[in-house]
Amino acid sequence: AQTVTQSQPEMSVQEAETVTLSCTYDTSESDYYLFWYKQPPSRQMILVIRQEAYKQQNATENRFSVNFQKAAKSFSLKISDSQLGDAAMYFCAYRSATWETSGSRLTFGEGTQLTVNP
Amino acid sequence: EPEVTQTPSHQVTQMGQEVILRCVPISNHLYFYWYRQILGQKVEFLVSFYNNEISEKSEIFDDQFSVERPDGSNFTLKIRSTKLEDSAMYFCASRRGSYNSPLHFGNGTRLTVT
Fold first, then answer.
1. B96/A contact by beta carbon, under 8 A
2. pLDDT averaged over chain B?
3. Distance separating alpha carbons of residues B5 and A53, to the nearest angstrom
4. Helices and strands in chain A, H and E counts
């Protein structure tokens, strides 16, 4: 079974600075998808960014980018020019690309609570 | 942008009662899911639903739980004989048919069992 680990329960960053959230995962599969979801105090789960494992290029969405290291099974999220609205719980998630073995469920990490200081 | 909508936002029920949590997935989505998040814990997969049947379920999803798509728009989660430990945030999610399509989550229903 796949596991996702976020070793940083809490992180803080100054407004306008850059912060990196860590995520590691364990899988025996070669093809899969990785996601970062944001959960603000409203508790809604918002997709931030996703990465397909077969793509070597790191995904980027505006101020959000990832550092995907497939061999190391690492998938960190970098938030540049942090804004107050970025304050939230961030979850890393894994999904297999092989329906037959793992279905389509998302496996989540424990989450990292990000605080943005003005 | 279309959204997944969930009702109610907060449900309080007494232990032993049955509850039905309701979801309206995005209209052109084909796969539907329920996830649960106990306060302070990670989000856990409960069940996926496709083509009017359960396609996958977790070990959490036992006989106490059931899902249904009674019409073309609603997707419901029924919890029978609720227990205190069922108190959690329940998220509905949906996605399009292509396998690499991302999940879109609703705002969740906070279930409190007293």
1. no
2. 93
3. 30
4. 1, 12
Test B56 with A91 for CB contact under 8 angstroms: no
pLDDT digits (tens, 9 = 90+) for B39-65: 888 899 999 999 889 999 999 999 999
- Mean pLDDT by groups of 10 residues along chain A of 118 residues: 92 98 94 93 89 93 97 97 97 84 80 96
From B42, B55, B99, residue closest to A108, measured CB to CB:
B42
A25 touches chain B (CB under 8 A): no
Say yes or no: B91 contacts chain A, CB-CB below 8 A. Answer: yes
Would an 8 Å CB–CB cutoff place B56 in contact with chain A?
Answer: yes
**Closest CA of chain A from B105, distance in Å:** 6
Phi and psi torsions of A89, nearest 5°: -90, 135
- Taking the alpha carbons of B107, B45, B10, A92 in that order, is the dihedral positive or negative? negative
B31 SS3 class: strand
Other beta carbons less than 10 A from residue B36's beta carbon: 23
Indicate the length of chain B as a whole number.
114
Chain A CB contacts of B44 under 8 Å are 108
Beta bridge partners of A49: A36
Number of residues that this document lists for chain A: 118
B114 neighbors B14 (Cβ within 8 angstroms): yes
Residue type, A37: Y
Alpha-carbon torsion, ordered B53, B72, A46, B40, to 10 deg: -50
pLDDT digits (tens, 9 = 90+) for B2-15: 789 999 999 999 99
Q: Is A102 in a helix, a strand, or coil?
A: helix
